[in-house]
Each structure stands twice: as C-alpha cells, then as structure tokens.
Amino acid sequence: MPEQRLILEEACPASMSLGWRIHQAAFAQEGAQAWLDFRIPYSVTGNIALARQKAQVIRASMPVGDQPVYVLELGAGLGFFAWHFIQAWQELDALEGVRPLHYLLTDFSRSTLAAVVANPWFAPLIEAGHLGVFWLDQPAAAYLDPVSNIRFATPQKLQAVIGNYYACTLPTTLVRMEKDVLHEKWVKTWLELPGTWPVFNPAQAEALREWVLALPVSQPLSESDKGQFLSLCAFFSPEQQQIALSWAKDLPFALLSQIEESVYYEPLALERLSETEQALLLNAGADLDEQTFPWTEGLWERLLLLQDWLEPGALLLLSDKGYYVSSGVLPADLAEPSFHGNTWAYPLHLDLLSDWLCFQGWKTAHTPYPFDPLQTLVAAWQPAFAEDAYAWQTAFQTHFVENNANLDAARLVRAAQDYQTQEDDQMAVGFYQKALRYRPGEPRILHELASCLIRLGAFQLAEETLSQPCIDLYAQFDFDYQRGQIAFFLGKPAEAIAAFQQSLKLQGEYASVYYSLALSYLAQAAETEAADALHRCLALEPEHRSAKQLLQRLQSLSEPLS
After folding, report:
1. Lowest mean pLDDT among 123-127, 271-275, 556-560
2. End of a domain among 359, 385, 402?
3. Residue 28 has pLDDT above 80, yes or no
4. Same domain, 380 and 429
C-alpha cells in the first residue's frame, strides 16, 4: 500500500508551528515525572558547583549590610538549583556573616510546583522564610501567585534573577540573512502514516487529523481516545486495527519526533521589530554569513518587564547551552535542536542577547570557553558608579573564568563517561572520584561511581561510596538496588533482601531487582520466597533466561521422588 501523508498544519512561521505547541505543552503537562525520568534534560538545575558559583557572585554584588536579599529564579522546574543555592548561601553565611536570603522559586507549570511544595526536603526552607514557591508566567511582581506558605513580604525590588532555563519554553524564530535581507523559517507539518494502512479518504483523513491535534501531549491514551481512534479505523481489518492501536498508543509520547516538516524561508516582517532589534538581527545575520541561527522571540520583551522589578545594580544570571560568534567555534548546525522526547533545545545566541542587554543599559560578562557546551552570562542592571559597583565582575572573573569549578567537574564527568563507553571502569572510577570534589553529594555521580565499583568487584569501596552524604531530593536514583548488590556479594543476604524490597517499594517493579531478590532468598535457603520472586521477575520479563533456568531448577528439586 502507498505511504500516506497526513497534513497536520499548513505553512506558518516556525515560532508559531505545531512543533512549538507540542514542546510547550510537554513542559506544562508532563510535570515532575518528566524531570525525574530525564525526559526534560538538565545540566544546570541539579548542578551543585554552579549553584555555589552563582551564590558567590551575587553576594559579591551586594552592598555591606544585613538587609534581606531577594533572589528570583525563573523556570525553576523541580527546584534542584534553588535547594543547592540556598545551601551554598548558608555555608557562606557561616564564613562571612549572615545575609538574610529570600529565594523566590517560580515556574509556569503548576503540577511541577506542586511536587516541590510536597517534597519534605523543601519544607524547612519554606517555614524558615528562606524559600517561597510561586507560579509565574510573566516576569513582574503583579503576576506572582503563591503556591506554598510565604513567610516573607513580596519584594518590590529584586537583587538578583536566575534564569537558567527561562528561554527554553519561549518560541524560537529561526533567522538567516539572504541577499542582505533577514528571512525567517516557515514550516509545513505532517505525519507519515504507516505504509501498511488502508488509504483514508479526505473526510476520514480530516477526522484523523483532528484526533491527532487533540491528543494530550505525553499522556497515555484515554479509553475515549482509544475508542475514537478505533472508530476512525473501522474499515481496517481486526489485525490492522490492533497494529494501528499500538502506533496510536506510542504517538503522544513521540509526537515531536514523529512529525515531519517541509521548510522554506520568507522575509522577516520587520514592522514587528524595533530599530534596535532590527540592527541586532542584521548584525547577527551578517556575522553568520547566511547560516540560520535561533532567536528566542519574546525573551527581550520579558526582560523589559523584568527591568521594572530590579534594583540598580541587580544581577541577571543565565546558564544554558549556547554559543558566542566571537568565540570562533560554533555548533555544527545552529538551526537543528536537540530532541528529548516531546521537548527540544536550541543553543542560545549569547552574543545577540548580550548586545541587546548592553543597549538597554546593562553591563555584561560571560564565560570565554568555546569548547564548553554550558555557557554562563551575567548582567548587571544600571550599575552605580560607586567604587565597589563592579565587584560582581571581579567575582565572576574569579569563580567562572580563573577557577571554574563547574567546568572542571563537567570535564571530569565527560571523561569518566567516555571511559565507561569504552568499558574501562577502572579509569572511569578515578575521574568520578575527582568530580565529587567539585560536586559533593551529587547523586548522578555517586550512582555511576558505585556502578563502576560494583562491576569491578570492589564491593567494599562501593559500600564506602554509598555511605557518603547524597543529595537525592526526589529519590531519582536506585541506590537501594546498589546497596542490595553490595550486601549480597559481601555475604549479607538479610541486608540485601531488605535493600531490594526497599528498591521495589520506592522505584517500582523491575525484573532485575526481583531476580536479585530471589538469589538473596536462596542464600538464606528460603526457596518458597525465591520462587515467588522469580515468578514476579518472569511476569515482567518472560524471556529472562537466568530466571527461567533457576525456577526450573527449584521446581525440579521440589518434586517428590517417584
């Protein structure tokens, strides 16, 4: 049968396309679990070293005194960064004297914020007035909507704004210069239907199109959705219907990667831009010599709103994957995003953003490392001309240029991951251990380090590694399974059983955990419990060969002799 193209959307600017609506819906609807499953990727939010660096720069920008410091984080997600920042601030309080901190954690996803408020790690910070959780879609005080108890007055002015991922949910226009004229990317969007499907007539195709566009992004199909889809496929054979339903069940979770686009460029409508914006985009287009580059549309307007909320000298700190044309080293294709489930990420054009800020009266500085994918930009709003007005620049130079702990840690982690890819756990261990000096307690590093040590058979060292303090705010990592493995190989089956049971309780049911639990029961001669664990393993993974063989062996041993 011929392939069918289901047109979902006629041509429109890329910043208004279906792809962006899917992306924004994923951020808003997937909520906490998307962060916990790493479907929303992050290299900034849980970054202990970066939180410490930013705390040091912000403190250096503050005048001497004990006045409260108000820091706002935009697009905070699950609050990893906020937690690490507050801990770093309190460590500096102990060294330098107390500077009262009120941290405003904000996001536009209410479901994500609900998970922050419910997390017991944050409760003491909220009750002490160090942290307040707010829904915020526009960066202005009038839009703040508290979702936690707030133990401090809403600030009229802010001393710092942290916007780690704030630009990620704003539509991106893709711009290029053609014959000295700015053009923007337009796209037409469709789905390629499986070639084994019968052909839809125009009315059936339109009904299917409406069904696809109404799908809740990244949510399981409801019974109503399934029934409606099967009614659309009523002219399929029963076998074709079941195959098509399997496709439909996967579609909400892979919609962004499944849609296809045809691309062309139209002249950019300059009337929607100010003269300054036109000049900046023209300069950027000329610098990139007909290469398409991303421009986060709407970001500048939101930063203009933010300016009314800032004290003179207040700092804006932005860290994200980005590039500077002035560095001379650019990503291979600036117009191609990196896909992560139903979200995507474009690199930020940081020269463009920095130039705009300077036109508006900001002073800026940024990391000069073109080979580091994570870049940091800091800007001061209308700094005064006092002698210490540029202390933030000195602090930024010290903590982000001369001694960039985050960059050092990132290099070490990347090296460790490269060695793991080469199956050289011995070398990976050394790099992970060094990375922990910069990011103590970071759960991802501890988990990978323990995994390497377990594979090497260094169970005592693995046990010592997991005894270190770990900041796993949402129990993302299955340390209980690792503890169970270690205890089993150290000859402590009772401890192993307890750890595996805890893993099943906290992380859900996995065949590998049930199999390890069965082995631990056998080490205690608890054959009935072992058989039950093996049955549960095979229910989850019917082709688990080791579990099948072990269960057959147990059953043969239990059969009475004839």
Report:
1. 556-560
2. 402
3. no
4. no
- Global pTM reads 0.87
pLDDT at 335: 83
Contact indicator for 400, 371 with CB cutoff of 8 Å: no
The answer to whether residues 377 and 351 touch, using CB atoms and an 8 Å cutoff, is no
**Could you tell me if 236 and 244 are in contact, meaning their C-beta atoms sit under 8 angstroms apart?**
yes
CA 180-185-187 angle, 5° bins: 150
Show the 3-state SS of 448-467: HHHHHHHHHCCHHHHHHHHC
- Range of the structural domain that residue 215 is part of: 4-22+180-264
pLDDT for the residue 389: 66
The DSSP secondary-structure symbol of 63 reads P
- CA 488 – CA 520 distance, rounded (Å): 7
Do β-strands 158-162 and 172-178 pair in parallel, antiparallel, or remain unpaired? Answer: unpaired
Q: What pLDDT band is residue 372 in, cutting at 50, 70 and 90?
A: low
- Taking 80 as the threshold, does the pLDDT of residue 369 lie above it? no
pLDDT above 90 coverage of the chain, percent: 62
Residue 2: predicted pLDDT:
57
Mean predicted lDDT score pLDDT of the chain: 90
Question: Which pair of tokens denotes residue 509?
Answer: 């049911």
Residue 275 lies in a domain: no
| Pairwise CA distance, residues 229 & 233, whole Å | 6
204: CB partners within 8 A, 6+ apart = 232, 235
Q: Residue holding tokens 């609506």?
A: 21
- Residue 54 CA to residue 348 CA, distance in Å, equals 19
DSSP state of 257: H
Q: What is the pLDDT of residue 385?
A: 59
- For residues 389 and 433, membership in a common domain is answered with no
Decide if 361 is inside a domain: yes
**Nearest partner of 374 among 413, 416, 419, 428, judged by Cα:** 413
Q: Are 390 and 444 in the same domain? A: no
CA distances from 342 to 23, 24, 34, 116, 477 (A): 6, 9, 10, 22, 23
- Among residues 373, 443, 400, 469, the alpha carbon closest in space to that of 55 is found at 400
DSSP state letter for 380 = E
Q: Which long-range contacts (CB under 8 A, 24 or more apart) does 243-248 make?
A: 243/194, 243/196, 244/194, 244/197, 247/194, 248/221
Residue 341 has pLDDT above 90, yes or no: no
Q: Do the bridges between strand 343-345 and strand 338-340 make them parallel or antiparallel, or are there none, so unpaired?
A: antiparallel
Residue 285 included in any domain: no
164/31 same-domain check: yes
pLDDT band at 388 (very low <50, low <70, confident <90, very high): low
Q: Is the pLDDT of residue 3 over 80?
A: no
Do 376 and 417 have their domain in common?
no
Last residue of a domain, one of 371, 402, 433: 402
305 in helix, strand or coil? Answer: helix
Output the CA–CA distances (angstroms, integers) from residue 525 to 494, 521, 530, 557, in the order listed.
11, 6, 9, 13
Asked if the structure places residue 284 within a domain, the reply is no
We report the CATH number of the domain holding residue 378 as 3.40.50.150
CB 178 within 8 A of CB 290: yes
Q: Into how many domains does the chain fold?
A: 3
pLDDT tens figures, 32-68: 777 777 767 667 777 888 899 999 999 988 887 788 9
